[in-house]
């Protein structure tokens, strides 16, 4: 885990989807479903900024 953790102990520098609590954290933080989160990480990697931008793009295009 990096030095950049949230108050709940989650690494805020990468979207980690290996464990349920991490998935719940990122779904809440990014306002998406688990399926959307997993699709975004597969498409653009684990950067929170890239995942957020990807989700916004898909939301605006009507795909999510």
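-> sequence recovered:
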């Amino acid at each position: 885990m990096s030095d950049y953790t949230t108050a709940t102990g989650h690494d805020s520098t990468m979207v980690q989807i290996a464990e349920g609590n991490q998935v719940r954290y990122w779904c809440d933080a990014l306002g998406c479903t688990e399926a959307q989160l997993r699709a975004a990480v597969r498409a653009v990697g684990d950067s929170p900024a890239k995942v957020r931008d990807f989700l916004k793009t898909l939301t605006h295009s009507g795909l999510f």
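The two ends are 30 Å apart (CA to CA).
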